[in-house]
Design a protein that fits this description.
With 398 residues, this protein is of the alpha+beta class. Helices cover 27% and strands 32% of the residues.
Length: 398
């Protein structure tokens, strides 16, 4: 591999250490609607006793016999019959939820495990998600205090980005794993003509309550713990050739259990490269420049900084990569010396629209073993800094 190919490869590797816009957060499943917190309550015993004593024309002796019989019946009822389960009971049990831990099976390319902590108002405070198989390898994501920290395990790097709107970003998938919202959806669907809800009560404390929801060729089976009345598992099915085929499941492993002290703290290896976009100025401010002008200028400033051995500025132009890390990469993999910039641009569309970036080719004059030559790099991607509109950065190769 010649020197210019090596540096392009390094640019690509560095680029892959930074999340690609909207793609780093994955939906768990499809959206589920929420419903009102104010739900009706029922009391079978009160209703029964009220009816019993509404008789106005009973004679004294007959009334006494009826009263005794009713009291005996009520006593036997309390001892032998468990009131039928109603979804409202799980809604009530969910009101005190502060922490959940769940696992999705199979994970596929999405999330495998989730830990979530809520405040006293039910608002999300902390979130951790593990993704075992993504385009850029396995990664863990922790969100808290307006920041998303992503550990790219395969690339041994960590990136911290501004993410104030994580709740808005996860709105469509958040309702799929929050048991409070799921159960409210089931309650609301009971009167719907489009959704068929069936409830199979538990016969013993070892058998779960089963709630089955069927609509439009999909079936979800919910298992509720008969003692805690909390949701334990969701099994998802799709109708194919007349039979319901399993799509996977969600298992709730812990409710309100104290989380490990470091569950919302990533612990990457000590030698992992850390890029924190929340504690430094990243990229180039666009100002009065057009998008194309800003894209060209950030590439020009990057290479000019390399020429001047100013790796602090060069790192700033490339996603905020630490100066020492960038200097080491150039020292180990780019044996040529960049002498001057010959040309930068014009801007071209990026072949992958999902990157939300463009390609800015450039031609450099480089010196190798005392020989001067020109080399064109046509795989340098540029886009706006993640969640920082108006700032432009190099994000690597194609």
């Amino acid at each position: 591999m010649n020197p210019e190919e090596k540096i392009e490869t390094q640019l690509e590797q560095l680029a892959q250490a930074v999340p690609s816009g909207d793609s780093f957060v994955h939906d768990v499943m499809s959206r589920i609607e929420t419903s009102s917190d104010k739900l009706p309550k029922q009391s079978i015993h009160i209703h029964f006793v009220r009816r019993l004593f509404m008789k106005r024309t009973m004679k004294f002796a007959a009334a006494a016999i009826v009263l005794i019989a009713a009291l005996l019946s009520l006593t036997l009822l309390d001892k032998t019959v468990t009131p039928a389960y109603a979804i409202e009971q799980t809604i009530e049990a969910n009101r005190s939820l502060r922490f959940i831990h769940l696992k999705c099976d199979p994970a596929g390319e999405g999330v495998e495990e989730i830990w979530a902590r809520f405040d006293e108002n039910g608002q999300l405070q902390n979130l951790r998600m593990n993704f075992p198989n993504t385009d850029d390898g396995p990664k863990d994501v922790v969100w808290q205090e307006g920041k998303a920290e992503v550990w790219f395990k395969k690339k041994n790097s960590v990136t911290v980005v501004v993410e104030e709107a994580m709740l808005a970003r996860l709105k469509m998938s958040y309702a799929d794993f929050d048991p409070k919202l799921i159960v409210k959806y089931l309650y609301r669907s009971q009167g719907s003509e489009k959704v068929q809800i069936e409830i199979q009560d538990s016969r013993s404390k070892d058998q779960p309550i089963i709630i089955t929801s069927t609509t439009n060729g999909f079936r979800d089976v919910f298992k509720v713990n008969p003692e805690t009345l909390l949701l334990e598992q969701i099994e998802k099915f799709a109708l194919k050739e007349g039979q319901y085929v399993s799509l996977g499941s969600i298992k709730y492993l812990d409710y309100n259990q104290p989380a490990a002290a470091d569950v919302f703290v990533l612990n990457p290896p000590a030698d992992a490269m850390r890029v924190d976009q929340t504690t430094q100025v990243v990229g180039l401010e666009q100002g009065q420049m057009t998008n194309d002008q800003a894209a060209v200028e950030v590439v020009r400033r990057f290479w000019q900084a390399i020429i001047e051995d100013d790796y602090q500025t060069a790192g700033q132009m490339m996603e905020g990569i630490p100066a020492e890390a960038l200097k080491k990469i150039f020292a180990e993999n780019f044996k040529a010396k960049v002498v001057k910039i010959v040309s930068v641009g014009p801007v071209k569309p990026h072949p992958n629209p999902a990157t939300k970036g463009v390609v800015v080719p450039c031609t450099l004059e480089i010196e190798i073993d005392g020989q001067t030559t020109q080399q064109t790099f046509d795989r340098i991607g540029v886009r706006q800094v993640y969640n920082q509109p108006g700032r432009w950065t190099i994000f690597g190769g194609i």
